[in-house]
């Protein structure tokens, strides 16, 4: 029987937040669903999910977008983990990361939350920080701009092309992590670009 991976894109619900920096994790999960021709449906775990496969016959993927606000993402993630009987080492959380430059993707398992309240809440709800993460760089705002305002703003029109490439790169990172493991994915996605 194929193993099940829960791939969670963190973000805020509703059209007001769809294209904001804080919702880049959901953009990545949307890309994974789009690649497979899947659509999301409501789930009793307070999320929208799309069930699919990494490729036919290998690794079931449950793509999920919590309906809760970012800072209380843990409840839906824990509910989905129980429903699909998925252990933390098979729960990939995709989220925005201020401390990584825009247009950069990094992967890790465990460690601190780096001030990311969504990641903090997921770790609390799961009872462990030891789950894989695909961290999508959004960079920090220039000057004295408030970080809370920055993450809730849409990406700039001038970032659109780079954003599409970064979302694709992050989706590739999720697929590589599931199929080949964390270290193999890091070797590809942490390597300097030519």
Automatic annotation (TrEMBL):
The active site is at 22 (proton acceptor). TRNA binds at residues 17, 69, 71, 117. It comes from the Bacteria. Keywords: Cytoplasm, Hydrolase, RNA-binding, tRNA-binding. HAMAP family: Pept_tRNA_hydro_bact (MF_00083). Catalyzes the release of premature peptidyl moieties from peptidyl-tRNA molecules trapped in stalled 50S ribosomal subunits, and thus maintains levels of free tRNAs and 50S ribosomes. Hydrolyzes ribosome-free peptidyl-tRNAs (with 1 or more amino acids incorporated), which drop off the ribosome during protein synthesis, or as a result of ribosome stalling. This is Peptidyl-tRNA hydrolase. It comes from Microbacterium sediminicola. The lineage of its organism: Bacteria, Bacillati, Actinomycetota, Actinomycetes, Micrococcales. The gene is pth.
